[in-house]
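Question (not urgent): is this output format expected?
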Amino acid sequence: MIGVRSVEIVGARGFIGQELIGLIQEHDFLSVTPASLNEQGRLSPDEVARTDASVVVLGLPNGESGPYVDVLEDSKSERFVVDLSADHRFDQQWYYGLPELTRRRYSGQHRISNPGCFATALQLVIEPVRDGLSMPVTAFGVSGHSGAGSKPNPRNDAARLRDNVVPYEPAGHAHEREVMSRLKGLALDFIPSVAPWARGISVVVNMRLEKGVSLAAARALYLERYSSETLVSVVDQEPLAHERVGKVGVEIGGIAVDKFRGRLVVMAALDNLLKGGASQALQNINLALGFDELEGLRNHID
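Got this back:
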């Protein structure tokens, strides 16, 4: 009989932390610690070091996970740590948890880095055709303002965003570098933007192929690659961000081909707080603890 395992969430009051709590409450074999549920400010590193939880999830702003990781390392903790921030996405000693692409590389690592939301969508689009690419790949992405966090800043300022789509970090965005670090040899130019809606992201990826491909053949590549992936759907129409809200899966579609120029355009949409955050973290927790990867997620699958 499988026993219930506990999860400590540092930063449980954040958007993704709240989503993760909701998902865990639907999980038959996980529970959230009382300290996480009652977190008023933030659990301290020392408090986390004393926890007996099986998993510690760090839902902190970028650059703030270090003291927590350090204290767990110092105490030689065997707890699983899932970092939702970008702090360890470039650290090769941490397992990078984009399950549809990396689960075969998981071999019991206790330190897991959750991918970024744009990086998740971009990699899922690029991976099926990466061997035939002529570089560079160009991409444009739009995110709801929840992607900018709950702390007030220009990227979640409702007045500034009203009736606007606002580009930010148009050169050298962290998710651009994240994708290139994971899809070795890829050259990517990515321009992200933020929009007035709260959640959901959409990406449009423009790729050139060394050999031309028909629309039917391009679509077949994606259908074949993701045929066994419950959380990746390949559709004919353009995927819409608002239709992904509350869903734990990704839609890839709107595929267009200019076979004479070797140009392939593919779109994707997902919920940045779920597949771009909390539900992907739960996939990784399930994988680490030996549960079915979809445990706790089934109520949110199309």
